[in-house]
Amino acid sequence: MLKIKRLSEVIRKRVFTDSGDLFGVVEEINLVENRIDGWRIVVSRDSGVVQVLGGARGIIIPHQFIKAIGDVVVINKNAVPSAGYVDEDVSVDDETSA
């Protein structure tokens, strides 16, 4: 289990894959019933994932793909989600209406 004092401390932390590649930056943490459900990450333009996402500026990574949180966030290399998780507009209103 990941232990952090405040979720606000994780916002704007850099995200790397477990293979050491830069992935992006944490923009927001999605909570469902006081539990972390997913992590909204703005994908770095330097990351190789940008081509896969097309015009999307961010994606939502399910919580089970987070491996570690410290000075940076480490995610599982297989965390690149299917098209259903791509969030093109990255707005909270779109998620709550789904």
Report on this model:
The protein has 98 residues and is mostly beta strands. The protein contains two helices and seven strands. It has one domain: PRC-barrel domain (SH3 type barrels). It has a seven-stranded mixed β-sheet with strand order 5-6-1-2-3-4-7, with no helix packed on it. It is globular and about 35 Å long. The termini are far apart. 19% of the residues are buried. The model is unreliable at 81-98 (pLDDT under 50).
Structural class: mainly beta
Taking the alpha carbons of the first and last residues, their distance comes to: 28 Å
Mean pLDDT: 77
Number of strands: 7
Strand order of the largest sheet: 5-6-1-2-3-4-7
Oligomer status: single chain
Query: Under the CATH scheme, which class?
Result: Mainly Beta
Named CATH topology: SH3 type barrels
Under CATH, the homologous superfamily reads: PRC-barrel domain
**CATH architectural arrangement:** Roll
Number of helices: 2
Q: So what's the overall shape? A: globular
Strand content: 35-45%
Low-confidence stretches: 81-98
